[in-house]
Amino acid sequence: MNKQIPTLLIRLWRSLWATLRHAWVKRETVPYPEIKRSLPGRWRGRIVLTRDPDGEERCVACYLCSAVCPVDCIHLQAAQLDNGRRYPETFRIDFSRCIFCGFCEEACPTLAIQLTPDFEMCEQSHGELVYEKKQLLIEDQGKHPGYNFYRHAGIAIPGKAIGGGVSDTPPVDHDTNLP
Amino acid sequence: MGTMHIDGHEIPFQENDNILKAALAANIEIPYFCYHAALGSLGACRLCAVEIAPEDPNKKPRVVMSCLEPAKDGINVSVSAAAARQVRQTVIEFLMVNHPHDCPVCDEGGECRLQDMTVACGPPYRRYRGRKRTFTNQYLGPLVHHEMNRCITCYRCTRFYQDYALGDDLGAMRLRNEVYFGRFQEGPLTSPFAGNVIEVCPTGVFTDAVFRQHFARVWDLETAPSICPHCSVGCNTLPGARDGTLRRVCNRFHPEINRWFICDRGRYGHQYSEHPDRPLTAQVSGVKVSYREALAAAAEQIKAARDRTGGLGSTREDLESNAILQTLLNKLSGRFATFSDPQLETATTAAVAALQSSGGAPSLSEIEQADAALVVGDLTTHAPMMDLALRQAYRTGAKLAILHSGPSLLTRFAATTLTVAPHEIGAHLLHLNEQAATASTTSNKHENEKKLADIATYLTTAQRPILIGVSETMAAPEITALAQLANALGSRARLAYALPGANAYGTALLTPTNSTTAMLEAIESGQIQTLIVMGNDPLGDTRLGARWREARQCLSTFIVSDCVATATAEAADILLPVAAWTERGGTFVNYEGRAQGFAPVFQRAEPLPNTAEVLADLAHCLELALPDAAAVLSNIFPGYQAPLPGTLGSSLSAFPLTMQTETPIGSAPLGHPGHWQVTLASWYGDDVLASYAPALVELAPPAAALIHPTAALKERIEDKEQVRLRGPAGTVVLSVQLNNDVAADTIALARVTLAQLGVGHGDLLELERIS
Ligand code: SF4
Ligand code: SF4
Ligand code: SF4
Ligand code: SF4
Ligand code: FES
């Protein structure tokens, strides 16, 4: 028993010394919420719907995000404008169920749905955590600027007829059999 | 017939099977695009490659297309062989070279064969970085959306549209790798079966234009086995709903009825359930009330009227509702009827009686096997899928004969067409009977006589002749005459009738003799004070609508339950809205007497009761003990077991009906100058429910008075001239359209026009020129 006393004392002094040393080290903790840390861009927080470079809604209401969502918290209804553009008539995310896994962002073929580094979403009731489209849709391209799905797709929209996509040839004239 | 080996499994096959067909039948997966069980093999897509081991071990194995290679006894086939896999991967990679980047905006996504096959066989990434070939799209009408970039040239669409359904306005154009599938000129597809290209096309070239307006992915749809409520064929369907609204209807395979297809009425008629005017709230004297209040009001009136209560069932109400309504009326000692027109009642009951004594109608797959057929009336518009079955018979060489008085799409395929005025149909049938009995080859000069002799020859020389009558446009004696003809042809001949309504067969079994006339007279004489109408539209009846409207004034209370806003529902004192067919379960008995169950697909946000439930609730308010539907039905039909939804259905063991009236076939009415016989010019979307489906109704032909050119010449009427038609219920001004398919002295009119005029098929009408 007596043999252990010096070892114990050494351990005790070592931890005391470490504590003492840290008293003069630069602090990592910040007094949140007075001071807010900037989070990395890939942080998975509040979800937004972004716009394409032309300022139009990016989401084409393909339902892939709602299909992949493991907790089934995305609900939307597709609609389309007469000119061929598809958009979600309603888009709803229940953030009281969302587990911020980022699967929706991964699944989205148009880069519309994106997770942002914002996590401050406290509300008094569950109902207020159900975000509607007007709360989700932002006026920005988010973290993937420059991509416009319709420039690559085959369908026609105003300003882009069939054959006008970035990798399209002009449409075939099917009324003739000449080469 | 034999067995072969596929990757170590023993696979049996039938004679003339190819490897793919036999493999699919044994649940072995071989990837494919262009093969289709109904359309056969073509060898267009090259995806179904398999490797066959050589018999001689010194030779090399062969890679073949399994859809084109006949199955042979003892061969060793490998789906997983590296060479076969390589072929499939290359095929997919080449298909993807020009395929658009469309999946997110493509309605096929989720049920796309190309997606599935690409994931199953293709390379994971596109290597090609060049430019893609593109095609413009066409407007193909309100039902089918066209997006030609997505085509993989499997030719399934044209093989269905042209070869199978015998349509002529969709085909392949141009050449090489630029083959285009569309119409010669933009415009609505004209085939009554056009919607099937949506299901047949393995990609998103053809998609459902109605579903597109309110689209949901297939994985989000609630579905349940259902039965089409739009005609007496009873095709099996798979409706899809989401968020409390119905989105689409698809075919559901039934081996003896519709198999892989349904008609456009069945596919698009469902829009009635989302019609903005659909009654969803109960009403008493036009004021919206709760269901309970409306029920209490109805019960109070029925209690007061007691045995002076009448109940009108319907041929489009299910078996349960009709049977319970009948039981309720029995308890009240009231009166029960099911039809709004006595002529329709006698014709339908005569048809059912004839079917019972003829040993049952042939199924659609049996109709396809016919080698001669006689059709009386316009089959396409009354039982579209029966028409498609006859087209299959025609493709295999069957002789079709058509006896009709107005336009019919089937006449294009007929070997002999006999166009006679409605009143002469009966006489012609009798004549045919004589001809068939004597088998005499009269060298008569008259053209119609010759045609009759031809028809008699087809029918008597055929191995599997089929006689089909459209009961709505036939009088009871004509129905009987057709049945006698079937009888005279012996046991090889089969008899079928297209009946008016999805449950017309079942309803006819419950109908008391001459009940419609009795009901009308009882109302008019004040014996009935309170009338309950379930899913019927007597006030909108073509012939007797005006009389019913007057009779309605004699009633103190008019109780109506329906799922569409018919003229009758609008005139109701107490309106009890009920669930649409996709929202409820029940049983329909189709034209063969096959009872088929259907299940509720979804519930609306505010669920509505079905008709049987409304009646049960009503009985509860009346303090009457009413047995449940199963008990009522097993009382009526010995040994009745409710057919389970999703099964093949079962035949009803019913007591035989007797023919109601044995009136002889009358001679044609004397032609007064200025009087014309009326024939119904229907169209394939024409049925009470489907007439509330906006996209389908867009295709309805414009109202016109169709007259044969010769008749027009005789009366000096010109094409497109305005004429005034005078009927018992009103006057209508229409423009004349000359049509070669209308009989002499006959004028063909749409159903709405008939209702405005107050005339039915076969009645007389005054025509007046406006000069
Ligand atoms: S995956 Fe993207 S484009 Fe598709 S519905 Fe979701 S947000 Fe819209
Ligand atoms: S056809 Fe299939 S693979 Fe092509 S875009 Fe549509 S869903 Fe995608
Ligand atoms: S349109 Fe569809 S069905 Fe027709 S060939 Fe192209 S992929 Fe096949
Ligand atoms: S044939 Fe009749 S039952 Fe079949 S889908 Fe068409 S309307 Fe419906
Ligand atoms: S299925 Fe055999 S080639 Fe297409």
General description of the model:
The complex is a heterodimer of chains A (179) and B (771). Chain A starts with a helix and ends in a 7-residue tail after the last strand. Chain A is α+β, with helices and mostly antiparallel strands and 179 residues long. In chain A, 20% of the residues lie in helices and 16% in strands. Chain A has five helices and six strands, in the order H-E-H-E-E-H-E-E-H-H-E. The longest helix of chain B has 16 residues, at 82-97. The model of chain B has no long low-confidence stretch (mean pLDDT 93). Classes of the chains: A alpha+beta (179), B alpha/beta (771). The interface between A and B is medium-sized, with 34 and 35 residues.
Arithmetic mean pLDDT of chain B: 93
First-last Cα distance of chain B:
74 Å
CATH architecture classification of the domain at 47-151 in chain A: 2-Layer Sandwich
Most residues in contact: chain pair: A-B, 34 and 35 residues
Question: What is the structure about, briefly put?
Answer:
The complex is a heterodimer of chains A (179) and B (771). By secondary structure, chain A is of the alpha+beta class. Chain A contains five helices and six strands; from the N terminus they run αβαββαββααβ.
